[in-house]
TrEMBL record:
The protein, known as: Transcriptional regulator, LysR family
Keywords: DNA-binding, Transcription, Transcription regulation
Biological process terms in GO annotation: DNA-templated transcription
Entry similarity comment: Belongs to the LysR transcriptional regulatory family.
Pfam family, one: HTH_1
Organism, as annotated: Nitrosomonas marina
Gene Ontology MF term list: DNA-binding transcription factor activity; sequence-specific DNA binding
Transmembrane portions of the chain: none
Domain HTH lysR-type, chain residue ranges per copy: 1-59
């Protein structure tokens, strides 16, 4: 296949009427233009231009090629305009994958506001906790809760994930309020099975890390379902504030031992590295950052 850039240079020469003017318009040297035309003629096996000291004229083959090259140039310029408009103005399909709990509670409810601000964008949102392939599955942005974002992606931190040791006021009234992590041995500790901490809850104290053996009557693999069990008064659990922030703010749940719980994970918006981040990606992430706030809205007064 021929180098399309040679056809573009040829079209510019025909359009401008000289090598020098074509070089000026394309911001390249006159010799580069001359070499490109000679290479195109050699590749095609035909003379395209009659050259004289004063002017240029098209040969029969050149006249045929000029018509097609003009179309190539028009298509290239139109494609450039379309791409530039995508970079300058947020528009087009935005394909997003978000983790189940955070996506359901905080991404999906934000979309109506986002789309009202950017009516030229359409969104395809997938709610899932499974690993996704940005390139293979065509995602523009993935939103995940993790302590180690993929090093091959650009990861923008949306919010810290703070966990609280929560139970209802009624539970604490009946079973007592733990004063130290070791007191949890006497409580019904409801476990999130995907935490990787089965059988032990890890805390940070003045003397360093504390691993407390815990047990309880329920283990669940979903934060939202676990929070419902805690709200029902069944026991005590370590829950992210982005799940139970409203319940802590309203007093339905109470948090204890917060000084022993460190921030270990963050919510990240990840996308493929590029010199030119699409406007739709940039505007979506900036919108989420603005909506969440420097102190996440679910952590205020929680």
């Amino acid at each position: 296949m021929q180098d399309l850039n040679l056809f573009v240079i040829f079209a510019r020469v025909v359009e401008s009427g000289s090598f020098a003017e074509a070089a000026r318009r394309m911001r390249i040297s006159r010799s580069a233009v001359s070499k490109a035309i000679s290479k195109l003629e050699k590749n095609l096996g035909a003379q395209l231009l009659n050259r004289s000291t004063r002017d240029l004229s098209l040969t029969e083959a050149g006249a045929v090629l000029a018509e097609h090259s003009a179309h190539i140039l028009d298509e290239a310029e139109q494609a450039e305009r379309v791409v530039n408009s995508l970079q300058a103005e947020p528009r087009g399909m935005l394909k997003v994958s978000a983790s189940v709990a955070f996506g359901t509670l905080h991404v999906a409810p934000a979309l109506a506001d986002f789309l009202s601000r950017y009516p030229e964008i359409r969104i395809d949102l997938t709610i899932t906790d499974r690993p996704v392939d940005l390139i293979g599955e065509g995602y523009d942005v993935i939103i995940r809760v993790t302590n180690e974002p993929d090093l091959n992606l650009v990861a923008r931190k949306l919010a810290p994930v703070r966990r609280k040791l929560c139970a209802t006021p009624e539970y604490f009234e009946k079973n007592g309020v733990p004063q130290t992590p070791e007191d949890l041995i006497e409580h019904n500790c409801l476990d999130y099975t995907l935490s990787g901490e089965q059988g032990y809850w890890n805390f940070t104290g003045p003397e360093g890390g504390i691993a407390v053996p815990v047990s309880g009557t329920l283990r669940i693999n979903d934060d939202d379902a676990l929070s419902q069990a805690v709200l029902g008064g069944l026991g005590i659990a370590l829950l992210p504030t982005f799940t139970v922030g409203k319940d802590l703010q309203s007093g339905k749940l109470q948090a204890v031992l917060s000084e022993y719980i460190a921030v270990e994970r963050y919510v990240y918006a990840c996308y493929l590295p590029s010199r030119h981040v699409p406007a739709k990606v940039r505007s979506f992430i900036d919108f989420l950052l603005m909506r969440i706030g420097t102190v996440p809205y679910w952590d205020k007064d929680a």
